[in-house]
Inverse folding.
């Protein structure tokens, strides 16, 4: 595999499929940039470089799944997050819901993607303030759901820190929270009206008959298709005239027929019911049918197909051309007599594009196959087409029945792209680049909305990371304090060591005899100045060397035997007189005494004292 397989979409799909099979978590509907970024971060933490390596890591360490889910399911929330939006909810939406219900009717609210529960309890406080405590307990049910089991456990505990409660107004804090042994908790008698449960927005059926649905900063993690599917379920879940409250990075531009904004800036919407009710109440006038109303539906579909702006044709599974619309007949010069022939009889089936192989690929992959900017020669010009081959399947068997082929002329758009590229090359400043981007905003609204949601997601990740950094900073500060204490101790020990070295140097200098300190391997550790005078070797020449490797004027075998005896016995040896020759070649008698350096129950070295007897006399 070429390139970095960490970014290989195939490997990522395999990892997500493995998670789905083993843990029943389906992340395929989540946005790929967010998934890639969060998974890559976790892979770096455990030292994996490819998705397949991380899949093996999950198989070997099942406990890693918890951390993996926490890395993807970012649980960032808070009480009264975006205060202006919640103020509008309290002043406008909650009173509308209450006034639109019978005095004894129940009120049902769903907090989807509730994380650790702060927003669910915020909803409870708003309805409790509007209805009173007794009214809230008897009428309101707040259903709070999330896919993260750990976050739900934290939400059920309903215990919060002082910092988390800073956004709660003082009057509500005193009325709805109580001190417990674990900290500050939401009132236990009101907690029964807030029901927490696990729910997957992409797979599970929605909660029904709702008056208010709050889903803030959750949809932004999903792809556009997944968002549309979830919002369709939200529409089914809400009662007529129900309200939907989204996060500030989310909108409903593609669902304008089912939701209309009450406060678009605050992302508060209501369901649309007037259009449907009007249509259902309007009487049908069958006395004078409109012209052409007697067409069979099949003919109407054929007429719509034939009038299509893009050139289109339909072939069956055997490759026989069944339908060709007017645009395609004019474009490729197809006559009605040619209908019913096989696709391979048409030149455009193999030149300039091999359509038959693309059709086979569409059948095999069961998805539409697209080829962009295909150059097609026409007379003296070259035109560009986007070709889309869409497989058609029988219902309900799912067997392929044919394929639809659409040719979209993008020559003009390609020319515009070329002109835009030439203009872009002339831009010299960041302001001109921004201006160019601004000109494309009108035609790229969907893409920019997706980018905005990703930025909101990144902001929440940064907020979470900032909290981690604050914790690490406190830990580092504590460690730094410990280092200061250890450093002071080391400085004190260093002063003591310098003083001990000074004393040792003074003692060794004051002894009028050669002093050699050996370790238990007979390696020289100390060699005083008198030893240098006797044998003519400086300390730098002997320290760190084995005694047997030093050429001095003493019989080596007798000296080594004396030293080893002292190490083995652990007692001071008797004074031994050895015949020696000093550095000037003079013969003299040398008294040698060995004393052990004790460490516990054994000797860790020997001090050898050497005296020139003749010089002393």
């Amino acid at each position: 595999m070429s390139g970095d397989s960490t970014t290989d979409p195939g490997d990522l799909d395999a990892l997500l499929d493995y998670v789905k099979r083993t843990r029943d978590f389906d992340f395929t509907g989540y946005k790929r940039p967010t998934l890639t970024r969060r998974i890559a971060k976790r892979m770096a933490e455990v030292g994996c470089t490819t998705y397949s390596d991380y899949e093996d890591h999950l198989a070997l360490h099942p406990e890693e799944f918890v951390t993996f889910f926490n890395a993807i399911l970012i649980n960032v929330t808070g009480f009264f997050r975006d205060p202006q939006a919640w103020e509008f909810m309290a002043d406008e939406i909650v009173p509308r819901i209450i006034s639109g219900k019978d005095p004894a009717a129940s009120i049902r609210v769903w907090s989807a993607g509730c994380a650790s529960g702060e927003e669910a309890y915020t909803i409870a406080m708003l309805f409790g303030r509007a209805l009173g405590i007794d009214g809230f307990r008897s009428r309101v049910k707040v259903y709070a759901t999330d896919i993260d089991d750990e976050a739900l456990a934290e939400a059920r505990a309903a215990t919060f820190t002082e910092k988390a409660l800073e956004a709660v107004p003082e009057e509500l804090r005193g009325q709805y929270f109580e001190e417990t042994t674990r900290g500050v908790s939401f009132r236990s008698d009101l907690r029964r009206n807030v029901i927490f449960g696990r729910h997957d927005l992409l797979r599970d059926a929605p909660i029904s008959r709702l008056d208010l649905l709050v889903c803030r900063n959750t949809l932004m993690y999903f792809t556009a298709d997944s968002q549309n599917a979830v919002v369709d379920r939200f529409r089914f879940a809400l009662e007529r005239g129900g309200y939907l409250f989204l996060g500030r990075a989310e909108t409903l531009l593609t669902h304008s027929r089912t939701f209309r904004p009450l406060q678009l800036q605050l992302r508060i919407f209501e369901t649309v019911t007037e259009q449907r009710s009007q249509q259902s109440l309007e009487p049908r006038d069958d006395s004078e049918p409109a012209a052409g109303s007697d067409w069979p539906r099949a003919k109407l579909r054929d007429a719509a197909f034939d009038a299509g702006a893009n050139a289109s044709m339909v072939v069956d599974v055997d490759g026989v051309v069944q339908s060709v619309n007017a645009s395609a007949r004019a474009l490729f010069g197809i006559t009605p007599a040619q209908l019913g022939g096989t696709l391979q009889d048409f030149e455009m089936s193999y030149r300039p594009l091999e359509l038959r192989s693309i059709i086979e690929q569409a059948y095999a992959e069961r998805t539409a196959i697209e080829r962009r900017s295909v150059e097609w020669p026409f007379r003296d010009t070259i035109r560009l087409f986007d070709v889309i081959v869409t497989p058609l399947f029988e219902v309900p068997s799912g067997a392929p029945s044919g394929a639809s082929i659409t040719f979209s002329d993008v020559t003009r758009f390609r020319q515009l792209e070329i002109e835009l590229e030439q203009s872009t090359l002339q831009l010299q400043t960041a302001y001109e680049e921004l201006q160019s981007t601004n000109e494309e905003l009108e035609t790229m609204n969907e893409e920019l909305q997706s980018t905005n949601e990703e930025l909101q997601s990144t902001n929440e990740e940064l907020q979470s990371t900032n909290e981690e950094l604050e914790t690490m900073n406190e830990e580092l500060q504590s460690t730094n304090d410990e280092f200061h204490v250890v450093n002071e101790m080391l400085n004190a020990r260093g002063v003591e060591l310098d003083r001990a070295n000074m004393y040792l140097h003074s003692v060794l200098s004051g002894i009028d005899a050669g002093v050699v300190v050996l370790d238990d391997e007979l390696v020289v550790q100390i060699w005083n100045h008198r030893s240098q005078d006797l044998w003519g070797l400086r300390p730098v020449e002997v320290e760190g060397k084995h005694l047997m490797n030093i050429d001095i004027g003493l019989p080596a075998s007798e000296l080594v035997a004396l030293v080893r005896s002292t190490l083995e016995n652990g007692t001071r040896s008797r004074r031994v007189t050895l015949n020696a020759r000093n550095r000037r070649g003079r013969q003299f008698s040398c008294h040698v005494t060995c004393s052990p350096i004790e460490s516990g129950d054994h000797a860790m070295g020997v001090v050898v004292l050497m005296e020139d007897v003749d010089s002393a006399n």
